[in-house]
Amino acid sequence: MSPSVDPEDPEGAIAEAAAACSNWGRWGTDDVLGTLNFLDAAKRCEGAALVKRGASFSLSQRFDMNGPQRGWRRRTNPVHTMLDTGTDAALGSQGFPHGLGGADDMITMPLQCSTQWDGLGHIFDHGRAWNGRAAEKTVTSEGDLVTGIEHMAPYVAGRGVLLDVGRVLGGERGELPDGFAVTEDHLVRTAREHGVRVGRGDLVVVRTGQLARARREGWGEYAGGPAPGLSFTTAGWLHRSEIAAIATDTWGFEVRPNEFDGAFQPLHQVAIPHIGLLIGEMWDPEALAADCADDGVYEFWLTAAPLPVTGAVGSPVNPIAVK
């Protein structure tokens, strides 16, 4: 059953959905993987068997100063700094012997400023983290002491599925308008039109087309502003389908403005701490989507391991889809 949306009662709707969709205790009290438990060895073998042509696609935006971030909650675009350069080598200032020279660099950035995963320690509901843990004992100034994203690093690889809702419902350009709430019916219809099934252990990529529009027209309010995205009512589908993870081409995964008066990211509040769902944001499925539309194949091998940053509640990622 899908949760209802009473615009004036976000607290009640969130509580109802949290109770109906809870996976607390499903994999034991010590679980740190959430829905990634659905992605087992057999599912990875199923995904690997989908590689037919060897065509590969990066689903990542670039990591540079030209990204979409505007400083909300101190989120900035990546700052790339050179530590050693060809100039240093040519001037002989590096101190290496027999003509050796080199270049080194570093990057400074929030872990969630571009294509990324939201870890299980990213969102809390009334002071509770994934699996019912106390938020203040789970994530401290030392990081996520329990469900740090490093635990997920070996497991995010398997059968990927693209649901190109933008192409199915977005008119000639294949782009959903900002504020478009993608419902369970929309997801089911898209899967049906693509001739693909979605279920246990799958890694689902939802294309709305917003990223394509932002690239054409400029970032504008892409980072935090109005956007198409999943409706709060999809919480039931996210739970019942038993998918391992889901990612979108938008900043916030769910529809913005949110569907409740005065609410902020209510679907996150259910999906992460209660369902234990791994959520990806700001992915770039454009090249993959064009290929899927061309050959009619919307399933593929997908590997999208987070960086094993100890105690992190999110991670940059360069997802690779192979068909």
From TrEMBL:
A Gene Ontology biological process term: L-tryptophan catabolic process to kynurenine
Protein's name in the database: Cyclase family protein
Matches recorded under InterPro entries: KFase/CYL, KFase_sf
Signal peptide (residue range): none
Pfam families: Cyclase
Single Gene Ontology MF annotation: arylformamidase activity
Matching SUPFAM superfamilies: Putative cyclase
